[in-house]
Amino acid sequence: MSTASRLPKTVQRLASKLPTEVNRAIRRLAVLSLIGQTVLVVTGGAVRLTASGLGCPTWPRCTDDSLVNTPEMGIHGFIEFGNRLLTFALAAVAALMLVYLWNLRKERRDLFLLALGLLASIPAQAVIGGITVLSGLNPWVVGLHFLVSMALVVFATLLVNRAFGRTGRFMNRSLPSLPGAARPVMMAVAVFSAIAVMLGVVVTGAGPHAGDADAPRNNLDWDLFSHIHAIPAYLITAGSFFAVYLVFRHKIGGPFRTAAYLMLAVTVLQAIIGFTQYYNGIPALLVGAHMLGAALLMSAATNAADLAKASPAT
After folding, report:
1. What is the pTM for the complete model shown?
2. Cβ contacts of 26 within 8 Å, gap of 6 or more
3. CB of 299 within 8 A of CB of 154?
4. Which residues contact 75 (CB under 8 A, 6 or more apart)?
5. Are the C-beta atoms of 97 and 33 separated by less than 8 Å?
């Protein structure tokens, strides 16, 4: 007896209405997932940069007596609870993606597993957020919370590429050949991007924006680690310029050219924001912009490395 015949008739009828190929709805959900993960980074930054980290002083409730924020908690409670609500919205998107992929769960196992990983990671991220609150905004736990968000941005980027057939086993287009150096360089750029983000977490943990006036810091030398953090950033910049050079030198077109331009643009923007905040007393607004830039950097680096890996070498 097949699996389908053992399902209740209501479920069978529902499954019969679900897509049997990757369609526009699935692609839109993939894009929405990537946008949502990026927005979550921004709202998480807003929580910390507005000192709203303990706007909801407990978890999973917002207070001991209320699941949601109360008017007495003011703007800090609203910001913190709003960030928590976004997690539920992302879980709904991931769950809906799995539903739409149900008939394709075997044929498009790549998409199904990525969507499942995103859904499974969201409650894990919520638990880490709860530990963050219960630990009084311990900077290492806050950093872990941010790094998991970065990993989810990476997974969501891969999901978009696979859903649109840009990369993976089910590519629906031919990519132009790339010089042999392109693939290792873009892989290195992706690795250095991850290292830069991890070091940025250490810098942030030593800086002034703790999320609450009484939150602890990691007691490391902020200035020293800022300079260490800059080292992989320089390497990312060099790799991005080299990728653009290859594009011009070999007249490369298609998605990789766009990815190289995007990678360079995000890298230069991040460098400008980083230097500006360093020499202007680390204003909160620029720190928030730098956090958004980190999410865009991880997405751009993942996209470029993924395309380079999928392209034939000359």
Report:
1. 0.90
2. 19, 97, 100, 101, 111, 163
3. yes
4. 50, 52, 55
5. yes
Q: What is the pLDDT of residues 302-311, one digit of tens each?
A: 999 999 999 9
Is the Cα dihedral 293, 295, 299, 305 positive or negative?
positive
Among 84-88, 156-160, 263-267, the least confident range: 84-88
Neighbour-count burial of 42, counting CB atoms closer than 10 A to its CB (0-12 exposed, 13-18 middle, 19+ buried): middle
The CA distance from 170 to 108, in Å, is 8
Strand partners, 178: 313
pLDDT in tens, 93-152: 999 999 999 999 999 999 999 999 999 888 888 888 888 888 888 889 888 989 999 999
Task: With CA atoms as reference, report the closest residue to 175 among 71, 259, 261.
Answer: 259
Tokens of 282: 């680390």
Residue 1, pLDDT > 50, answer no
Contacts of 187 (CB under 8 A, 6+ apart): 305, 308, 309
Task: Report the SS3 class of residue 139.
Answer: helix
Asked if residues 212 and 51 have their Cβ atoms less than 8 Å apart, the reply is yes
Confidence at 210, pLDDT banded by 50, 70, 90: low
Is residue 183 scored above 90 in pLDDT?
yes
Please list the alpha-helical segments (H only) found in 105-221: 109-134, 139-163, 182-206
Q: Find out whether 30 and 163 touch, Cβ atoms under 8 Å.
A: yes
Q: Considering the chain, what is the average pLDDT of its residues?
A: 88
Q: Which spans in 17-108 are helix H?
A: 24-49, 74-100
- Quick one: tokens of 156? 């969501």
Q: Tokens in use for 172?
A: 């629906």
Nearest alpha carbon to residue 263 among 225, 300, 298, 296? 300
Judged by DSSP in three states, 178 sits in: strand
Residues in the chain: 314
